[in-house]
Design brief:
The chain is an alpha/beta fold. It has 2 domains: about 200 residues, TIM Barrel (Alpha-Beta Barrel); about 130 residues, Lyase, Ornithine Decarboxylase, Chain A, domain 1 (Beta Barrel). The chain is built from 11 helices and 19 strands. Strands 1, 10, 13, 14, 15, 16, 17, 18 and 19 form a 9-stranded mixed beta sheet that branches. Strands 2-3-4-5-6-7-8-9 form an 8-stranded parallel barrel, surrounded by 5 helices. Helix 1 packs across helix 3 and helix 7 packs parallel to helix 8. The longest helix is centred in the N-terminal third of the chain and has 14 residues. The radius of gyration is 23 Å and the shape is elongated. The termini are close together. About 45% of the residues are buried.
Amino acid sequence: MLLSTMPRPILATIHTAALRHNLARCRAQTLDSRLWAIVKANAYGHGIERAFEGLRAADGFALLDLDEAQRVRALGWRGPVLLLEGVFELRDLELCSRLDLWHTVHCSEQIDMLASHKTNLPHRIFLKMNSGMNRLGFTPERYRSAWTRLNALPQVDEISLITHFSDADGERGVSEQMAVFSSITKDLPGERSVCNSAATLRHSEFASDWVRPGIAIYGSAPDFPEHSAAEWDLQPAMTLAAKIIATQDLLPGDSVGYGSTFVAEQAMRIGIVACGYADGYPRVCPSGTPVLIGGLRGRTVGRVSMDMLTVDLTALVPAGFGTEVTLWGRASNGAVLSIDDIAHSAGTVGYELMCALAPRVPVLVEA
């Protein structure tokens, strides 16, 4: 239990069993592939150390930087660790050798670094193609020359081939990018990795040697609202819950919160909840954003404040001071409110809400 004091009645819970379930769900979708658990951004806000036990059945961990890599190694992981953006300066390669890290190469400057790196241990490389995302990677026209240059370096051992889909969650799909990637790499040796969460679930026919589920293992649907997390059989890995710390009775015409953005049309009873945007709850969530109040579906009213938000208790007569309010995740009675529903109300995605959990929120790891 990673909790000593709780100065306010708010708590985030990380569900280890849900992480295991979601990882197994992704593996079942692509049985012939090995699976990277993506733990960049501090395991999507869940905490690498907190999420590790639930994800240790993965075949490898993929992450962003050397600090995260060292943390995974410090937890005792001896399997593959992949730096998704590769190294940023020459001295990073020394730590890659020491920690036995695999790393992505996506630009000619990283090849230059490898060429000047003095090592007795050749590096395992994932050579990235820009097949249409237009962020990182060599264009199809330059990809094979990059492979040839890497392959000639004594500092390089095995070269794997990787790309990233821009529209796996939408109508455009992955066929166009996959055709480009396959055409350029068809006679190159090495393992392939192309599928992110959305492609793993929606386009598993393209799964290759490695798949890279990220958001799905944390219980959010990568293609919401077309599919919900429940429809993909994903469970919430994070619950954010707080308690009601006060109630107010409103008359018709009374307003709630800053800017008086909500005005009661009839007599109402409202509850004040110990959670606000300084805890990571989106300020932009409008009135009507769903919550679970004592495990029952309810709604917010008024503008979200720094430390508080307000919910409608009118139809929930027993609710009052001390009642649990689930902002997202699983309530004590087992009812689930997907983080995707809150993100949709805020005009964003579940990724952002997970990553925005504030440091001041105490966290409990539940086995």
